[in-house]
Amino acid sequence: MRPLRACLGAAAAVGLAAAGTTALVAGNASGATTALDNRWYAAAPYLMPLDNDPPDPAAIMDASGLKAFQLAFILAPNGGGCSPTWGGTAAVSSDTAVQSVIDRIRAKGGDVSVSIGGYGGTKLGQTCSDAASTAAAYQQVITKYGLHAIDFDLEEPEYENSAAIKNEIGAAKILQQNNPGLYVSVTTAGTADGTGWFGKQMLLEAKSQGFTPNNFSIMPFDGGFNGAASQTGALTNFNSILQSTFGWDQATAYAHEGFSGMNGRSDTGEYFTQADFQTVLDYATSHHMDRFTFWSLNRDRQCTPADNGGRTSGTCSSVAQNSRDFATYSVKFAGATPPTSTPTPTPTPPGTSCKPAWSSTAVYTNGNEVSYNQHNWKAKWWTQNETPGASEWGPWQDEGAC
Quick one: average pLDDT of 168-197? Predict the structure, then answer.
């Protein structure tokens, strides 16, 4: 995953609380005391409330019927330390900006979960000395905002640090014990096999500590995925990993499994359309999965040519859509009916014709041109079986939509 993912990446989830800390899941400065049904927290899409041109959550609620939001991300301070901040810079202890967003959502009958981690940045599991102190830092977030749900995004680079993951999982278990009813999800990277070596090590750490969250979610994007079929295949494989790791039967594994997608164009140039989301949603509901979410609501609107010229953006999807199209799939997963909306716009036919389709078996040399995922690509050097993508360091140069 690329540095861009620090802004774009899907986040992951784990609930945490400090040993000996009094449970405080309900009630905060805004007076919120009533939790939503867990299905809403399971359907909450990610929203960056301070970055990436944040949309108005009240407008999203009116347009889509959405009630729950996954606010991102809690990190350690950029200068070091074991206290929670938004994005490494804004201390939770003195925050008023995010609190006002939460108050606005709750005033309309909604609620939030908070996501810890994400791609990049320094995580509290890396800077706090042990599980108890990590949990104490996260408990400050739960207490300040009166949270009923929390999400841990355990991915690069933190999940490559076994001591940090031990702290995070240990803290998750503490928070789960000290905050009865807290909805806890753990999200990690997805691969075609389900999840990679570090994701499997994280699951083994959870098993060794006797910790079971509401779900373990994978992010099947940015790993050579191509549409919904590749994503549902990864979810099927991840189900087998959950079975073998925890000794669950298939149904129990699905009941503890979640999906976290990316709407539109991913960091590596994959495309996931509304039709792909519908296919994965059908898979998730038919298999009785516990979670269906996506990164992000900041991107749930159509780009203009000035936005990004057909490249991945943190503020729009790079696919043809009406605003809030992707939010409606979360609403459906929660069991609600979205308001009637206008049809999704038809993409304007591109002015550039597509080159011959890329082949995994063909050999390409400098200057050869192919098409892949509705874009033309030019080889920068000799390559074979390397999927065209937007990586600055890869063999392919993106020549734009076709």
Answer: 98
pTM (2 d.p.) = 0.81
Buried b (16+ CB within 10 A) or exposed e, 68-77: bbbbbbbbbb
Strands (E), 278-402: 291-295, 363-364, 369-372, 375-379, 383-384, 396-401
Q: Is 128 strand, coil or helix? A: coil
Q: Of 306, 266, 299, 301, whose CA–CA distance to 390 is shortest?
A: 266
- Reported as half-sphere exposure (CB side, CA atoms, 13 A), residue 210 has a value of 2
> Quick check: 41 pLDDT over 80?
yes
Helix, coil or strand: residue 259: strand
205 is catalytic: no
Q: Which residues contact 149 (CB under 8 A, 6 or more apart)?
A: 15, 35, 38, 41, 44, 68, 111, 112, 113, 114, 182, 183, 184, 185
Q: Which amino acid is at 194?
A: G
* Residue 337 confidence (pLDDT) above 90: yes
- How far the first Cα of the chain sits from its last, in Å, is 25
Burial class (CB in 10 A: 0-12, 13-18, 19+), 14: buried
Q: Average the pLDDT over each of 162-166, 245-249, 374-378 and give the range with the smallest value.
A: 374-378
